[in-house]
Give the backbone structure.
Amino acid sequence: MDNRPPPSAPPSTAETFRKSRLPLISRRSCQSRASEVKSPALKALEGRSIADIAREQSKDGVDAFRDLALQGDLEIEFTMASFNTRVDRMTEILNDKSVLEALGDGGAHVDMLCDAGYPTYLLGTWVRERQALTLEEEVRRLTSDPAEVFGVRGRGRLAPSLAADVAIFDPARVGSTNRSERRFDLPGGAKRMVMPSRGVEYTVVNGVVTWADGKLTGAAADQVLRF
């Protein structure tokens, strides 16, 4: 049995780390999590916040973060919620008519994050669970609002002569988690992050069903949009 103590940073290194990272980690320890842990000995800490781990180990957030990384031989992936973490302020923002709900990352960091699940996350977490706004209002903000702002003609509403683009979902089940899943299916086995949804029964594009029963149908009825 290996009775050696877990690795720790030399005093000089630890102090340098503390001085350089203390402000950021101390402020964000509640929003920082050990999202992926490879070591079996540390697996129980996966998904927990640095703040919780620090309290349990009677440490501050900086020491808990550093020691956990070293004990896991740097084979730990941490995530941090940087903005919009207060439920009360987010409720205020979501109900502000001047705010457009959208996402603009464009897949630039495909191996680190995926926020593409924000529509179903909003419908599940902010509408059904937190009741921050009504289902009808959120559907409008996800459909006709962006279509009008960006000038996408003939889309965003269900009306005669407009494109038959329809998302059919179960209001009692629709949602996504706020934690991406890892897939190693890029060329060379490279990693990408995905955000699966639940409760979406069908997706109809230009009147053609493109998603049904949890998978793509293979049908393609889209067209290039020109502004």
User: Anything to note?
Assistant: Residues 11-80 form one domain. DSSP finds seven helices and eight strands in the chain. The radius of gyration is 22 Å. The longest helix spans residues 11-28.
